[in-house]
Amino acid sequence: MSNASPEAIDLAWRVRVFVDDHILPHELALGAYDQAAAVLAAGLQAKARAAGLFGSFYPGSPITRLSDYLAVAAEEGRSEFAPAILGCDATLDTWMLDRHASPEQREAFLLPLLRGESVPCYAMSEPDSIGSIPATLQCRAYWQGDHWCLNGRKWFICRAARADFATVITRTGDGAIGEALSMLLVPTDSPGLRFIRPLALLGRQQGQGELHFDNVRVEASQVLGEPGQGIALMQRRLGLGRLLRAAHWLGLAQRCFDDLCARVHSPRGQLARLADKQLVRGRVYQVYRDIAAARGLLRNAAEKFDLGLPNAIEVNLAKLAASDALSGAVDSAMQIMGAEGLSELSPLSGIYRHARTTHILDGTDDALISTLGRDLLAATAPGKVNP
């Protein structure tokens, strides 16, 4: 992105070289999600820290504006495994803790994250609730004299099996939903907290899992913010979280576009005269247009975030557009690659499954589209200023 700061452009280039040289060659092994993959990822993360490429948008890093970070995120996102290796997976947690943690919580939870010494997870979804309706959450913490007692189940939690602590959304009251939920910071070695099982997505392990809380003791000092602030904190997480995800998805979409064009120009592509075929040209146009449009929407949302302006409509538009751009890009790349694109000879099959999850995770398409329609109608009602 040409309007990024010189510092961001330089960092983006160094990230690109690292991803190309150290991550892309190992994607097949990293996709196994086994012990060997974990050892490999840990070694690559150490290399990233040594190269000064870890946590590029953490609080206190040289990149302070989200609109500048987009250039870096596009390069981090070129591999579905790079965000974990480069520390990007923890960016949202570091921002939330930096803004809402007490001094004690900063020492216990934030500083280890900034040093790359711990792994966070975010426990919200539940087996017996509706993810898009917080009022249906069943997990509950009762106050017992001098501490909270936490009980419930959470599932489809990223990094659940290897996390050092979980930020848990739970009921702590019986009043209006805006006052009944809280965020608790719970170390995963707490007595009564158990990892139940991994949960594959589309038949592939991607680090999702289920946790069970059985009378877990949570101290008063482990509440993030204040009791009853859960909804407000959730909304703050969602906005930035969707933008960070969308930025990485567009990096992955750009990689698919690059691979598509490389196949068209390759000796095999020339033999098939792919560049002369109208349907191929149409795919190239469509993918390029979708990525460019999503980038514009993402930048608009990021600039409002940097200025502290309301951006809920822009965030949801950017998330949906980035998801569509990635899905369209990988589908077209696979179509041009043919059977090779479906096999382990290409990373596209893994990217394809990853792309499909983007329409569900961080807010389903259907829920976001419904919300956007409602918000746009409210904003364009008689007497309102159009968005």
Brief summary of the model shown:
53% of the residues lie in helices and 14% in strands. It is of the alpha+beta class and 387 residues long.
Task: Determine the N-to-C terminus distance.
Answer: 25 Å
The biggest beta sheet is recorded as: 4 strands, mixed
Give the CATH class of the largest domain.
Mainly Alpha
- Please identify which CATH superfamily of the largest domain we are dealing with: Butyryl-CoA Dehydrogenase, subunit A, domain 3
User: Which oligomeric form is depicted?
Assistant: single chain
| Side-by-side strand order of the widest sheet | 1-4-5-8
Task: Give start-end ranges of low-pLDDT stretches.
Answer: none
Overall pLDDT metric: 94
CATH architecture verdict of the largest domain? Up-down Bundle
Envelope shape: globular
How many strand units? 8
Please bin the fraction of helical residues: 40-55%
Number of helices: 15
Question: What's the helix-strand series?
Answer: HHHHHHHEEEEHEEEEHHHHHHH
The number of domains is 3
What is the radius of gyration? 21 Å
SS content category: alpha+beta
